[in-house]
Design a protein that fits this description.
Elements: H1 2-8, H2 28-49, E1 58-59, E2 74-81, E3 90-96, H3 107-121, E4 131-140, E5 143-152, E6 159-163, E7 167-168, H4 177-188, E8 209-213
Parallel strand pairs: 3-4
Antiparallel strand pairs: 1-2, 2-3, 4-5, 5-6, 5-7, 6-8
Helix pairs in contact: 2-4
């Protein structure tokens, strides 16, 4: 990924994430717009990075929305399925009008974790797997974090969420280049781990704090 970015230099194009306007006042209704702007920049780079043989398979972004969607408390942008349609995994992009909090999950994050895991459980063939994993890229304003969520069918009443530290991109992607590349790699990377019933293991990385949701 780093070599690709040095060759294409996206920070010099209109698709690169530029610094936020200094001293701009963004009310709550604009925070999700800024998060959406980050996702558009990330998606443009990832689409250029992946070749035609490994396209991203998007799912309709209207599959999950808040009940009062006109208020845009939070909204799921188009999310993606695993390349292998027979394995249970999706990536979700959530942008929220509420600020991200370092010590707790937001309503949109929890709702997305429960909703997408539950939705996956109804997919044909997925009931033969022990683990149902979902990766959520959660943003508000110019802040973002990665959430790894999984459901272990041997512990059916809980959902586990591992959350990364909050990453800051107010000054553009070049100002926090290491975290920007990390997020790109999370989106474009191949899945690892084993979700099978017999010899499954928690297919998650070491992001940070783990929350257990009941």
């Amino acid at each position: 990924m780093s070599e690709f970015l040095e060759c294409t230099r996206p920070w010099e194009t209109h698709t690169g994430l530029k610094p936020q306007i200094p001293d701009a006042f963004w009310d709550r209704s604009h925070r999700w717009h800024e998060g959406d702007h980050m996702f558009q920049s990330l998606d443009h780079i990832v689409q250029a990075f992946l070749d035609d043989e490994t396209p991203i398979s998007y799912v309709d972004n209207y599959a999950l929305r808040p009940f009062h969607h006109s208020k845009y408390e939070w909204v799921i942008r188009p999310y993606t399925k695993s390349e292998d349609v027979f394995k249970p995994h999706v990536n979700a992009f959530v942008t929220d009008s509420e600020a991200l909090l370092p010590d707790r999950l937001g309503t949109g994050e929890v709702s997305t974790a429960f909703g997408l895991i539950t939705q996956s459980q109804f997919q044909d063939g997925y009931n033969s797997y022990r683990y149902i994993p979902v990766t959520i890229f959660s943003a508000s304003d110019r802040q973002m974090r990665v959430l790894q969520c999984w459901h272990d069918k041997q512990n059916p009443k809980t959902r586990h969420v591992r959350r990364s530290p909050i990453m800051e991109f107010r000054h553009g992607m070049r100002a926090n280049w290491r975290d920007w590349v990390t997020v790109l790699c999370w989106i474009a990377g191949r899945l690892v781990g084993d979700t099978d019933t017999e010899n499954g293991s928690e297919a998650v990385g070491r992001l940070g704090t783990v929350d257990v949701l009941h």
